[in-house]
Amino acid sequence: MLTNERRQVGRAMPRIDAPLKVTGRAAYAAEHSEPDMLHGAAVSATIARGRILEIDSRAAKAAFPGIAAIYTHENRPNAAWLDRSWQDETAPPGHTYRPLQNDRVLFDGQPVAFVVADSFENARDAAAMITVRYEVETPETDLTTKLAERYVPPKKRSGISPPPDPRGQPEEAFKEAHFRISGDYLIENEHHNPMELFATTVLYGADGVLAIHDKTQGSQNVQKFVCNVFSLSQDKVNVINAYVGGAFGSGLRPRHQLFFAVMASLDLKRSVKFEIARSDMFYLSYRPAMYQTVSLGADAQGRLTAVLHDTVQVTSRYEDYQEVVVNWSGLAYRCDNVALTYALTKLDAATPGDMRAPGAASGLFALESAMDELSYEVGIDPLELRRRNFVHFDQNENKQLTSKALRACYREGAARFGWERRQAKPRSMHEGHELIGWGMATGIWEAQLQSAKARVRMSANGQVIVQAAASDIGTGTYTILAQIAAEALDVPAEDVSVQIGQSDLPETSVEGGSWTAASSGSAVDAACLAIRQRLLDMAQKDDASPLKDATVEEVVIRDGHLRLDTDPRAGVAISELMARAGETAIEEEGKAGPDAKQMKSFASYTHSAVFVEVRVDEELGLARVTRVVSAVAAGRILNPKTARSQILGGVVMGLGMALHEESMIDHRSGRIMNHNLAEYHVPAHADIQDIDVHFVQEFDDKASPIGVKGLGEIGVCGVAAAVANAIFHATGKRIRHLPITIDKILGETVGKAA
Amino acid sequence: MTSDTGTIRFILNDRSVALDDVGATTTLLDHLRLARRLTGTKEGCAEGDCGACTVLVGRLAGDELVYEGVNACIRFVGSLHATHVVTVEHLAAKDGALHPVQQAMVDYHGSQCGFCTPGFVMSLYGLWLSKDRPGRADIEKALQGNLCRCTGYEPIVRAAEAVAEARPDAVFDPILAMRARVKTELKAMKTGATIAVGEGRRLVVPGTVEALAEVLDSHPQATIVAGSTDVGLWVTKQMREIAPVVFINGLDALQTIEETPEGVTLGAGVSYSAAYPLLSRLYPAFGRLIDRIGGDQVRNMGTIGGNVANGSPIGDTPPALIALGATLTLRSKKGSRSLPLQNFFIQYGRQDRQPGEFVESLFIPALAPDAHFSVYKISKRRDEDISALCGAFHLRLDADGKVKTLSIAFGGMAGTPKRASQTEAAMIGRLWTEETVALGQAALAKDFQPLTDWRASAAYRNLAAANLLTRFYLETRGEGCELTRFEGAA
Fold first, then answer.
1. Which sequence positions of A are flagged as catalytic?
2. CA torsion, ordered B379, B380, B386, B389, to nearest 10 deg
3. Interface of A with B in 690-749 (CB under 8 A)
4. Is the ipTM of this complex over 0.90?
5. B72 and B202 share a domain?
6. Do B159 and B196 fall into the same domain?
7. Which residues on chain A are in Cβ contact (under 8 Å) with B296?
């Protein structure tokens, strides 16, 4: 654990990359250029299922002499044949989509041709002139008509636990329960819509080495993908993602703009840039639509006696995309009779992808809505129902928990919200024309650790460099790694330079799943420990050293000295140690990763309690969220500023999920109708009012070596349910279909003059 | 008429720009990012929704130099003649010292992934220039047109509040530093000559209204572009060929705002922002409606004349204007004519505008002291959204409490913005009571058979329209039901 009273860790330090961002100098993937480079533009399919009969690019070629190449399935350069070469480290099982592989159209917006020209305008305008003739087949894009064709994915996706086996006698227990509720829940597709468009710039080096600036959450994942697909050796491919304009999971898998830019660059031996349009972002990936059924049984006191949770989730024709949706229902509360089932159904659509808290955000909407419903059935406060069913154990895995300060979240969150003033009866609170509703929900996410390495270099003058292939997708990785090194080496954080976002740096997995701070942070801490050990070794070469008999645990770095922790007067200057050894700097690598032995008996989760106030203008169906309190237990907080922002952003994405976000598909054509930011509504500024983020104290020495659990996902977990529950409390209407739009709220309410 | 020239001139940050080969529909964003390599200005949507491309455009308004935030992605370079374009690269001092709005964004953690940040910075800078001590409402409004997917907005608001509270007296400010020079240069650029660029005059910037009439007479198929908040999307999203393009945003004669006891006359080129102070004073409900049209960037560019001429069934202002009894003046080389606005909208996609004609002005009658006027915009997302429906109500009662005059107009309920004539007829002459309102509600179905689309179902539209009538009735009875924002905790 990190210990230092002169705290760098835990300090609300502003982001060290912020000055570059507020001046517009941080360069994103599309913002690297060289003279005379080529630009790409894709032609997207206008059908959701069928075959390409003909692609006519004659007019485009005649009009634009600056065209360098037009690629279609008929002339695409060779790429890898085996599925496994196309499967990146986050890919689900199946046949990975390969751009321009053949004449099949598998989903709306699939790129069917790629134009490379001397300018962006020429490429774009030429692409617009290319006409494609299709043989159209009837697409199936409506989940609700495909529920019967459900199947359990035969091959599990790496890292995604399938539901545990049933325990107890769930069906019988449900039948015999004192209180019973059961409901079906529907969620529509949601899209990540990071502000930055997906883009790749490939700079073709004189030696044939590619410098690839890509919008990705993992430079090394992309590097391996490029090497595998194009049969290149790693030393020919350097991937850079120094600044990433948001991703939320959409940048985990390599996207087609990468393939196209690299393919064209290799084929033409030129530098190529390809940035996709906002509308094309909607075809890349999405949080999948799913149909869930939750049944809860409880005894007379509201203690759960049966939990049944079933889900049918959308996937593509070609991959079995999986997330953890139902498992949460087996571990959130104490219950001995549990049946959890999870199935997929195939649609004519692109493969879904991980979007902030994949699985949990969706599954908890159903579970936590059902818990709310049960509380009214039992006749107790929804928060009290959750307290009565509290469990400090993972019944799915039969494991202890590393920590669970959820009761503190309930207590402190409720106090900050003023929950005790809530009137239990729905429709009982109002002001002016608006009904007021208060709802709450529990959030859970897994606290994970991934293998990560980091290199730290400390100079005799106290300057420190931290290096890792980690990414910062807006989360604050640059800043917290600087803080961790600064604390361990006792230098001002300003003296630490962090170099990340490059594939030739120490190995790190993709940034996702909330594991980067814990994993890369622990690796940096380990590298700093190794530096301390090196310094101690150097000191102990001197027999007269006061540190002669000390172990590495007994020494600390303070003010440029290596000192005894118990007697800070005994020490030696680091500059002197280095000078004696003839070094100007020392450099060490650190490693972190899951502890297999510990994982046998412990599971680790972050928790939250979310409280929401809505005001509903019932005659017009308008709902607005006026207050949110999110109380979070996530272990150690490295930087309250970046931490708070993670939760704020998560909560707001949850509000979008609850009230706004869905792709609207015309099921006759299988096409997305609202593929723009005007009609796909991410929360705008006016949708956000008072959000209070509170971190409860939680000590955890097992979740990760530095006590961190991660914060990227927990903010969104439970929010949609809390909003739906608040709307029920306000209106008496239980809406189980997200998003909760104006017409769902209005239902049949006809206004009457008072 | 002054002789034609063929060069678009403007100032970009601290440099003068002269373009004689600019495309008719080249956007400012592409010009900045591709031609100038000024990549601080970002593309997030290319349709004026997200604000990542916000830059300031300074223009002469009379003798004043006015800077306004605009969306560079839907602003055409051809419309920039005699303006000063300021991008995020121009904001920090030469020694790298951050401007206070930038520093506050750093200090209050208003930037995460950073991609939307330059746009927010420029919106905050626009606010900095226009208001010394902006309050919360000013800040809210200034940030309305910027989307962020990371921060949850609140840190950005706090940054803005911090700047407002602790505004330093003296600070390096790039625009203040060059104000005099800019004024002189812009005046010199504004010669009143018509500019035509490209073969066959594909891009025309008329120097006078007479020149505009002349150009349209010889090119009746030309696309008239005022604010480009809709036309911009025809180009960036639909790849439509719209040349020849005639830019009218620089015509002072179309920027007039005239108030008389009879009402208000707005030139066709008056932006929402420019019309706002007067309209919100004379017709408060109209002001609140304008607050919900796009964000500042859109309100600074978009014009009420354009909103009308465009003819969209879901344009924000026509229902209010129709209910208020506005008349439209069209002009061509042959002369002018006026007509009630409600007659201008013939059917979906068709308006009563003859070849060679352009909207010159709009007259809005003054409200009678006893008149009730309300307009309600209903959208799925409160801000930055298109109306699912929009209803405007204008009522006068006689001494007996009977309905003397009533005009009701809806957008989003038919193929055009449309008056609810049957509904009105069912209520006029009757006592203004619940029973009368019920008669009106029953008649709504005769006026409107709305569609179901992604914004709302037909059932929703019918219900909400009926409920709006109820709401209007209750308001006239003194029950306040304006949505309030930001009251404290319950």
1. 713
2. -40
3. 690-691, 741-743, 746, 748-749
4. yes
5. yes
6. no
7. none
